[in-house]
Amino acid sequence: MSEFTHFDSAGRARMVDVTEKSVTDRSATARGRVFAAPETIAKIKAGGFGKGDVLAVARLAGIMGAKKTPDLIPLCHPLSLTKVAVDLTLDEAASTVEIEATCRLAGRTGVEMEALTAVTVAALTVYDMCKAVDKAMRIGDVRLVEKTGGKSGDFKQD
């Protein structure tokens, strides 16, 4: 089996060959948040944006983003995802939009990048829909929190 690196013996970038890896059930969950002004969070909650339901649009954008990961991240494998779930919740006390994405498949490579992309695209969509009233929003804390399956085993972070 080839070494798992994005560089060949001459140092050129390449897609990792996963041909010899076993097909296993794999999942990954990522989280992130959008930090916004309390007035922005209240306006999202009230449905006060003319562009539509911010959380519903961001959820759809996150799902679409996960499916487009190989178009966005060089050298990512195109995957047949069997599940993409994106959940967004308002934390009024912290003045944030909390985002969690879970991706699953049965395949030869993991779905960490798809989960991270889903969170990031959802966060960018929240920003885009709310920027007219709050250009100071920040996107942060995007991280992998759980991964199962594959050769490297399971991973869990709180």
From TrEMBL:
Keyword hit for Glycoprotein: no
EC numbers: 4.6.1.17
Keyword Lyase: yes
InterPro entries listed in its UniProt record: MoaC, MoaC_bact/euk, MoaC_sf, MoCo_biosynth_MoaA/MoaC, Mopterin_CF_biosynth-C_dom
Known pathway: Cofactor biosynthesis; molybdopterin biosynthesis
GO molecular-function term, one example from the UniProt record: cyclic pyranopterin monophosphate synthase activity
One Pfam family matching this protein: MoaC
Catalytic activity annotation: (8S)-3',8-cyclo-7,8-dihydroguanosine 5'-triphosphate = cyclic pyranopterin phosphate + diphosphate
Domain called Molybdopterin cofactor biosynthesis C (MoaC): residue spans: 15-150
Keywords from the UniProt entry: Lyase, Molybdenum cofactor biosynthesis
Chain residues that bind substrate: 75-77, 113-114
Function (record text): Catalyzes the conversion of (8S)-3',8-cyclo-7,8-dihydroguanosine 5'-triphosphate to cyclic pyranopterin monophosphate (cPMP).
Family indicated by similarity: Belongs to the MoaC family.
Designated name of the protein: Cyclic pyranopterin monophosphate synthase
Origin species: Lacibacterium aquatile
